[in-house]
Amino acid sequence: MTFTTPGANERDERLAVEIAGVRFSNPVMGASGTFGYGLEFSELIDLNRIGGFSTKGLSARPLPGNPPPRIVETHGGMLNAIGLQNIGARAFVEEKLPALRKYDTRIIANVFGYSDEDYIEAIRILNDGNGIDAYELNISCPNVKEGGIVIGGSPSAAARLTEKARRATARPLIVKLSPNVTDIAEMARAIAGAGADSLSLINTLVGMSVDVNTRRPRLNFGTGGLSGPAIRPIAVRMVHEVAKAVDLPLIGIGGIASPMDALEFIIAGATAVQIGTANYYDPRVTEKVVAGLSEYCDRHAVESITSLVGSIIR
Amino acid sequence: MIDTPGIVESNDELTTGYRLLTLRFDQDINARAGQFAMLKASDAYEPLLRRALAVYRAHGPRRLSFLYQVMGRGTEALSHLGGGGRVEALVPLGNSWPVDTLAPGERAVVVAGGIGSASVLMLCEQLARAGVDTHVLFGASSGRVAIGCGLEDFQALGLPLTVTTDDGSLGEKGFVTAPLERMLREERGARSVVYACGPWVMMRRVSEITSAFAARCLVSLEAPMGCGFGVCVGCVVAVNTREPLGYNSYRRVCIDGSIFPAEAVRWDVSAMPH
Predict the structure, then answer these.
(1) How far apart are CA B232 and CA B5, in angstroms?
(2) Which of A39, A40, A43, A71 would you mutate first to test chain B, the one with the most B CBs within 10 A?
(3) Dihedral sign for Cα atoms in the order B230, A250, A78, B7
(4) Fewer beta carbons within 10 Å, N or C terminal of chain B?
């Protein structure tokens, strides 16, 4: 079954949030790299019922990705080293966007490059696409040898790229932060000062798993990005730190699998959340979290979820 | 593809480490031969990810069986399920064995290696129903394992069947690829389509043999899967492309497969853990 009609009367107005002038019907999104190009979920959930989603990282040209094995399950999570296999910005605009525009959901294009120039080229291609609501700069992918985390690990490099991206588009600009840094607040301040409209965090933590029989890393790439519930407390802590450091709307990401998980991030300072790895083992989790947030609002007499943002008491 | 709970009807051990799980659904599934499901015990927090299991048998649209080997944490968790237990299932997934592409006069050879048998029983049923001249080659490490891999179900089909075991405890001693090579050599000229599912090294050898005798060959691959429906891009296999290491060098086993033409697969880049 494919859903195409927005269920306007089923929308819970209490859940609406706004980020950089973009209104989301609720604060629940699919996270980049775990939600494909959105359409893959149209058989499983009503895309009109989630706030939005962030695409698989899009580069100026299609990328093949890393040799297998690319994923390995760990306790409470998994490691991945996909290497940003993607169809490329042009194919996204031409082949995916027309179908996606039929849904009343926010589309965030996640952008990746090996150099500043690659990022800007991808943005220029995506600027031609109607229906993209915001960009998310992926400066935090740990599974490529250039770009990504190399930029995301240096406040000056991240600020420089953010400034260039800011000049390349009028669309809202979200920058996705890496947790693989000593001081995430310093990074957040540098990027905020360079013109970002919003920050999303966290990307995966660099990890490694070894097959003791072969004495080889379980991933062909060697290391991979750790995701899943195991990283959630680190992500909540980082959202809390960044919320204190900058005055930008934040999107919390990291191991969210239930409404209560999402609320932790919101209370710690996130305006919205993205759900990642849980989409794999519970493909309808985004819709379930939206429903759970409404129930929470009922139970706690919350008139607007925005009143909970950063409401942590300590 | 639907995401739906399944209720455990039975979960019986055939021999140590090999089990048959039968699930009942409250929706029609319509699984085709060679398709699979992503399964996880509902109340199990760990491991997180569902496990990809081939649909072994469809007893009507709402009752499916899965034959599996207990190999790691996921299948271990499934093995503890008792009657009435609940499973989260995403099903049916992947492409299916292309049976209707058989030309008149073509013969089918089905090669099952170890628990790879789980992916080909429905194929054999379908070939038998269609009256296709079919020979089954069934390999396992031992006679005991052969029983665990469903040998009796294959015998019940009444198709010509050759059994091999690594230790010689049942049937012919050696690998299942030996009778395949013999068949294709002795019956050179007969047009055969080979369908294979088993360990990576077996399928690689099957691919070499079928290529040498110019027989068409299809393989069903396995890979560790995150999602089973194409979004995680974790389960890829390297395929032959005009431009090595270019875009399209990797295909997803879950959604572009799990069944591929053998000549498409780059057998020098293993996609499987075993």
Answers:
(1) 22
(2) A71
(3) negative
(4) C
Among residues 259-278 of chain A, which lie with CB inside 8 Å of chain B?
277
Would you write out chain B's pLDDT as a tens digit for each of its 274 residues? 999 999 999 999 999 999 999 999 999 999 999 999 999 999 778 899 999 999 999 999 999 999 999 999 999 999 999 999 999 999 999 999 998 778 888 899 999 999 999 999 999 999 999 999 999 999 999 999 999 999 999 999 999 999 999 999 999 999 999 999 999 998 866 789 999 999 999 999 999 999 999 999 999 999 999 999 999 999 999 999 877 667 789 999 999 999 999 999 999 887 666 5
Only one residue has tokens 């926010």, namely A106
**Closest by CA position to A24, among listed A140, A124, A128, A174:** A174
Distances in Å between the Cα of B74 and the Cα atoms of A73, A170, B10, B44, B53 are: 10, 47, 18, 10, 11
Cis peptide before A69 (omega within 30 of 0): yes
pTM assigned to the model: 0.95
B46/A71 CB distance under 8 A? no
pLDDT in tens, A286-298: 999 999 999 999 9
**B149: number of Cβ within 10 Å:** 28
A201 within 8 A of A142, measured Cβ to Cβ: no
Closest C-alpha among A78, A36, A83 to residue A55: A36
Directed axis angle between helix A184-193 and helix A232-245, to 10°?
50
pLDDT in tens, A1-20: 444 444 445 789 999 999 99
Please write down the HEC assignment for all residues of B136-169: EEEEECCHHHHHHCCHHHHHCCCCCEEEEECCCC
Q: Which residues of B touch A258 (CB under 8 A)?
A: none
CB contacts < 8 Å between A and B, how many?
A: 106
Number of residues in chain A: 314
| Model pLDDT, residue A3 | 45
DSSP element (H, E) containing B255: none
C-alpha–C-alpha distance, residues B67 and B140, integer Å: 15
Q: Which of A29, A63, A123, A141 is catalytic?
A: A141
Distance CA B169, CA B142 (A): 6
Known active-site residue A141: yes
By the 10 Å C-beta count (0-12 exposed, 13-18 middle, 19+ buried), B216 is classed as middle
CA–CA gap between residue A160 and residue A166 (Å, rounded): 10
Q: What's at A185, amino acid-wise?
A: A
Quick one: pLDDT at residue B244?
66
Q: How many CB atoms lie within 10 A of CB A303?
A: 9
Average pLDDT over residues A242-270: 98
Beta bridge mates, A53: A30, A107
Shortest CA gap A79–chain B (Å)? 10
ipTM of the complex: 0.94
Residues of B with CB under 8 A from a CB of A: 1-3, 40, 46-50, 73-74, 88, 90, 223-227, 229-238, 245-250, 269-271, 273
